[in-house]
Design brief:
By secondary structure, this protein is α/β, with parallel strands linked by helices. 46% of the residues lie in helices and 14% in strands. Strand 1, helix 5 and strand 2 form a beta-alpha-beta unit. It binds calcium ion.
């Protein structure tokens, strides 16, 4: 049986619930109006009680609004009120619906903006076609992780050169790493396990370390990845590229020298080559691994294959060199790597690489030769480059592999004044915001 109404529209409410719902609706509306017209008396106050009073005001306003709706619904449905006074609760309902719609629109806008900073390809970002070639070193590997984290880098090929690693062994580690992070479509290349000339190999203990992927547990797979010859892969990738390619060379220059021998014309579609290597006005670094070496002027990447370096330096390419002069000036600490880890598994592994090296070497800070070169490749404004003419010493002796400044037209832009703060900040932004 239908219950008769307690009050009609033109009447006063018949129940206390009805009176309260209208009263609280009026209170909420008055308070909202005061707030919207800047008339909230507590906003103008000063002193320690001001924030508390403002909070009480806001909570009272919100509480009245919600209570008016709840009591209004009860009054209409259970108490069968139809008084105009009770129907006032529909005003807070309308306000609440509008607020929810505005909130939903803002959430949507926020999510759309988030897509723009994610490291996924975005049509609005100009991307750099990149070939990565490293000698299978720990910090070369973190340079690759960085390229995968910056949406501006479009890595078209990953290649391993002669140097710290045996190319055919290390490329399989990189293949597994790329698959693990969802980049298995990037073509892989490995160069010959020997320089173009000479026999300046890294010590065996280094090369053995690289065979085991430096002890990092990256869930090695049983899979064998398809690997092309590096020089062939470089030639093909450069020739087929829809835009000029930029190369990051962070090992010996063997593979690029071989590619130029196969097809010298590729340089027409090479935008720039960034090389970590050489020591221009500072001592070399051979003694770090071979303490009794008499060579105090060569840097390892150039020393490992001086002939290849000499050929690349005289090929007429747009070269950017990041030598020890620059890398000595930019060091990382655990504070830096900690900030990267917020960005997920890829930055986490990059941080792990440097943290474990600092631990092994008993140091609190560490250089990041290849990683810093990758950062500068994407942000050349982070180093002041000096155009110089450099010649590589290819004859055997105590200066073999030296990068010497000679008279004549410049053939390479040399990074001598890196902006340490800007580089570290950029690494933190790219790694720390990756997801
Ligand atoms: Ca390297």
């Amino acid at each position: 049986m239908k219950k008769p109404v307690s009050s009609r529209f033109i009447q006063h409410p018949a129940t206390r619930t009805g009176w309260w719902s209208g009263l609280l609706a009026m209170l909420a509306m008055v308070m909202l109006t005061l707030n919207n017209f800047g008339l909230n008396p507590f906003n103008e106050m000063t002193g320690q009680w001001q924030p508390i009073l403002v909070t009480i005001f806001d909570l009272t306003m919100l509480g009245s609004l919600l209570a008016a709706i709840a009591l209004g619904i009860i009054a209409v449905t259970r108490k069968h009120e139809r008084s105009w006074w009770v129907w006032l609760f529909m005003i807070p309902v309308t306000i609440l619906v509008i607020l929810l719609i505005v909130f939903a629109i803002e959430v949507r806008k926020f999510n759309d903006n988030r897509v723009e900073i994610a490291p996924t390809p975005d049509a609005n970002i100009e991307r750099m076609a990149v070939i990565f070639d490293d000698d299978g070193s720990p910090d070369g590997t973190s340079a690759l992780l960085y390229l995968l984290s910056d949406p501006r880098a479009d890595v078209r090929a990953v290649s391993v050169s002669y140097g710290e690693a045996h190319p055919q062994v290390y490329i399989q580690h990189l293949g597994a790493m790329l698959e693990r992070y969802g980049y298995e479509e990037i073509p892989l290349g490995a160069g010959p396990d020997a320089p173009l000339a000479g026999n300046n190999a890294f010590p065996d203990f280094v090369r053995e370390g690289s065979n085991g992927f430096w002890g990092f547990n990256q869930g090695s797979t049983d899979r064998t990845y398809t690997v092309q010859d590096s020089a062939d892969l470089m030639v093909k990738t450069i020739k087929q590229s829809d835009k000029p390619v930029t190369l990051l060379m962070s090992g010996a220059l063997t593979n690029l020298a071989l590619a130029l021998r196969i097809e010298p014309g590729i340089k027409e579609n090479i935008d720039a080559v960034y090389i970590m290597g050489g020591a221009v006005y500072v001592p070399g670094n051979l003694k770090g691994l071979v303490p009794d070496s008499k060579n105090n002027s060569a840097e390892w990447n150039i020393y490992a294959d001086p002939m290849a370096a000499s050929e690349v330096f005289s090929a007429g390419l747009n070269l950017y060199l990041v030598p020890l002069d620059a890398t000595n000036l930019v060091t990382l600490t655990h504070d830096d790597t900690r900030a990267w880890r917020k960005g997920g598994s890829i930055p986490d592994f990059a941080a792990e690489i440097y943290d474990s090296r600092m631990k092994d070497w008993g140091r609190e800070e560490i250089e990041m030769w290849d990683l810093m070169t990758a950062e500068i490749m994407l942000n050349p404004q982070h180093c002041a480059f000096s155009p110089l003419r450099l010649e590589v010493v290819t004859t055997e002796g105590d200066t073999e592999g030296q990068t010497r400044v000679v008279e004549g037209e410049p053939n390479v832009n040399v990074c001598l004044e890196p902006d340490r703060g800007a580089i570290l900040q950029s690494l933190e932004e790219v790694f720390g915001s990756r997801k």
